[in-house]
Amino acid sequence: MSVGWPTVASVDVENAVDVAIDTGDGAGFGVAGDPPSALSPSRAGDFMTCPLLYRFRVIDRIPEPPTTATARGTLVHAVLERLFDLPAAGRTPAAAQDMLMPEWTRLCADDELLAALITDDEERARFVADAASALRGYFKLEDPRRLEPAEREWYVETSLPSGLRLRGYIDRVDATPAGDLRIVDYKTGRVPLEAYEASALFQMKFYALVIWRLRGVIPKLLQLMYLSGDGEVLRYSPDEADLLATERKLNALWAAISRARETGDFRPRPGKLCDWCRHKALCPAFGGTLPPMPVRGAAAGVTAPVDLTAPTVADPTLVAPAAVAAPAPVTAEG
């Protein structure tokens, strides 16, 4: 792109991060059994992947202790957020490496499950080394000394014209002096296969829609940074048609979630990812027995009904999805 992104001179998970919002104060979910009041990218992705997985996480609220993989994502995100607290000249690979152990100690002090995850010194050394590798991958992709982010770990929330509330945390937002925005998301996992790129970009379009509805500005660029190995960047430039299509998709998804909640019918969708599902033992597709559906909690957990027939502000005719222009191509840079 020809847009000049911010430098020091010009302007002032990972599933683990999503889990933090969806199980913390920003989740929008009450006690087990309460209907959800908002949608995040992770939980939208859960329902599209497997409605029963969504039920386990949102309705049943079955605990999912951290794994070393999610903990590594949490640690790397924390270091990259705090790296920009340093003066620009100090944002070096060595400085980032030096932040690993202090950040891990801080995270463990705030989360006893993280503290209990790794107790062996040798295992801890391997864990930190893996996180250090991801940070080296980051520095292969960009030079943080040339950047001054507008936002870091930015909590965003908005309501669509239908009434559906969207919320989530954005890793980083960069802004040009002209007001153009770039949304950046760090991924400590591997680059997805081509078949899964659309799923990865869905999260970014979700955030772009939220920003558009909040600020009236469509982000110029969505940037996914995969930090494993040599690293790779996926870039996508959304347009209004993209975001209107995303809005329609989210409204339809919420309607499906609402129907499943009313009927209790959260059907499993067996697939290649089932071997990594922590709830496989409970899944009837694999001979498991479902737990009873939780009883709804207090009435305070119930929100006003969402009007999914309401047209969007920028699209009063609400054209059929088939009429939406084809999205711009995704570009990859290693």
Summarize this structure briefly.
This protein has helices spanning 15-22, 41-49, 51-59, 68-83, 93-110, 112-117, 121-141, 197-215, 240-263, and strands spanning 151-159, 165-175, 181-187, 221-226, 232-236, 331-333.
Characteristic terms for this protein:
6-stranded mixed beta sheet; 39% helix; disordered C terminus; 6 strands
Quaternary state of this entry equals single chain
User: Which class best fits the helix and strand makeup?
Assistant: alpha+beta
Please list the strands of the largest sheet in the order they lie side by side.
1-2-3-4-5-6
Beta content: 5-15%
Count of helix runs: 9
Radius of gyration: 20 Å
Secondary structure: number of strands:
6
Q: pLDDT average, as an integer? A: 82
Sheet with most strands = 6 strands, mixed
Q: What is the helical fraction, as a range of percent?
A: 25-40%
Low-confidence stretches: 1-31, 298-334
Q: What's the end-to-end separation, in Å?
A: 16 Å
| Element-by-element helix/strand order | HHHHHHHEEEHEEHE
What would the principal axes of the Cα set say about the shape?
Answer: globular
Question: How would the blueprint of this fold be written?
Answer:
Blueprint: H1 15-22, H2 41-49, H3 51-59, H4 68-83, H5 93-110, H6 112-117, H7 121-141, E1 151-159, E2 165-175, E3 181-187, H8 197-215, E4 221-226, E5 232-236, H9 240-263, E6 331-333
Parallel strand pairs: 3-4
Antiparallel strand pairs: 1-2, 2-3, 4-5, 5-6
Helix pairs in contact: 2-3, 4-5, 4-7, 5-7, 8-9
Describe the protein.
The chain is α+β, with helices and mostly antiparallel strands and 334 residues long. The chain is 39% helix and 12% strand. It has 9 helices and 6 strands. The chain has helices at 15-22, 41-49, 51-59, 68-83, 93-110, 112-117, 121-141, 197-215, 240-263, and strands at residues 151-159, 165-175, 181-187, 221-226, 232-236, 331-333. The protein has a 6-stranded mixed beta sheet with strand order 1-2-3-4-5-6, sandwiched between helices. Helix 4 (68-83) packs across helix 5. The longest helix has 24 residues, at 240-263. It is globular. The two termini are 16 Å apart. Mean pLDDT is 82; it is low at 1-31 and 298-334.
